[in-house]
Design goal:
Layout: H1 3-17, H2 24-32, H3 41-54, H4 56-75, H5 78-88, E1 94-97, H6 99-106, E2 114-117, E3 121-131, E4 139-145, E5 151-157, E6 163-165, E7 180-190, E8 194-196, H7 199-230, H8 241-266, H9 273-298, H10 300-303, H11 308-316, H12 326-339
Parallel strand pairs: 1-4
Antiparallel strand pairs: 2-3, 3-7, 4-5, 5-8, 6-7
Helix pairs in contact: 2-4, 3-4, 3-7, 3-8, 4-5, 4-7, 7-8, 7-9, 8-9, 9-11, 9-12
Length: 340
């Protein structure tokens, strides 16, 4: 990740926060610099963490886009080889509608979309409650269930017949991420756009990357917030020095742990799901704690809507509810530990 690229993203952060520049520009920017062609998970995690440190909205869009690329590469079909170049160069955004799939895999929910067999493939029906990077030229990846109970991973275009992209939500932060619901009415998915019929194997293959890259979002904003907080420990603020030091130590440790796990995964070794869930949950807590400390130390400036401290605080407030939410992570972690 070049300094110039990070400076560009940092310089646009206020305009993105005000929804004057769509967060999608980060996908285009990174794609033009071959940033989506990183060969290791460690490189990809570092890159996303650095971006999240200067603008979590842009990082969030890039995370979703990167996950779609991950799903497509995992499938490696003829359709994938046709559509993947446009995502790798950033000219088309990727939309991950996979929250229900991960909930189903964890036993915490069910797949809501239905896939009814048709002449040339399937017809999708149902609603995705939340997705980001929504655009007519997007590639959407999600899961659906057939009447026979088969669980499919599928892809379709944002402009496909029967697709209705919702009006973007009004959020505390991340308003430039084009986040809304999607309604599907008899959306045609040809057989060639079925990415996998082996649901469990597919989810197992992509889950580590999914959790590691979400961890990058958390640790990037946490790192930036606690660094900023550390510059304000003068005068009365000195009483929070121990709190800042504790969070700083925690964030540094989590970054080190993330990089160790990435290296293990890059060697095609298996990492216990408990470790991945613990890392993701701890990173989310660190982001919330770091941004809250920064706001308190910034005083009135932290409460000003357009300040960097306020932006990070509002953006980090999304992390506990991002799927998997804090409650789902705790539930999954408890269950994983019980299963041994």
């Amino acid at each position: 990740m070049t300094t110039a690229l990070l400076e560009t993203i940092a310089g646009n952060a206020k305009a993105v926060d005000n929804n004057e520049i769509p967060a999608r520009y980060g996908i285009e920017l990174l794609g033009a610099r071959e940033g989506f062609r990183r060969t290791t998970l460690l490189e990809t995690a570092r890159q996303l963490r650095e971006i999240a440190a200067v603008d979590l909205s842009v990082a969030f869009g890039i995370w979703a886009h990167t996950m779609v690329i991950t799903y497509l590469r995992t499938a490696d079909t003829d359709y994938v080889r046709y559509v993947l170049p446009a995502l790798e160069n950033g000219t088309r955004p990727g939309v991950t509608g996979m929250a229900p799939a991960f909930k189903e895999a964890a036993g915490a929910g069910t797949i809501d979309l239905t896939a009814t067999p048709g002449e040339d493939g399937y017809l999708l029906n149902g609603t995705l409650a939340w997705a980001s990077n929504l655009a007519e030229d997007a590639v959407v990846v999600t899961a659906a269930r057939t009447p026979a109970g088969e669980r499919l991973l599928v892809a379709f275009d944002g402009c496909a017949p029967g697709v209705t992209l919702g009006t973007p939500f009004a959020l505390l932060g991340l308003n430039a991420t084009s986040s809304a619901g999607i309604t599907l009415e008899n959306v045609p998915v040809p057989h060639g756009q079925v990415l996998s019929r082996d649901f469990d194997a597919f989810i197992s293959a992509v889950r580590p990357t999914f959790l590691i890259l979400q961890t990058s979002e958390c640790l990037g904003v946490a790192d930036a917030a606690i660094d900023a907080a550390a510059t304000r420990l003068t005068g009365l603020n000195e009483v929070l020095a121990e709190d800042v030091a504790e969070v700083r130590e925690r964030v540094t440790h989590l970054i080190h742990t993330q990089e160790l796990i990435c290296a293990v995964l890059d060697d095609d070794a298996v990492v216990d799901r408990v470790k991945l869930l613990e890392l993701r949950l701890a990173a989310a807590r660190a982001a919330v704690d770091a941004t809250a400390l920064e706001v308190r130390l910034a005083g009135g400036a932290g409460y000003a809507q357009n300040s960097p401290a306020s932006r990070r605080f509002r953006e980090a407030a999304f992390i506990p509810v991002q799927s998997p939410s804090e409650t789902q992570l705790k539930w999954e972690l408890r269950r994983a530990k019980q299963e041994g």
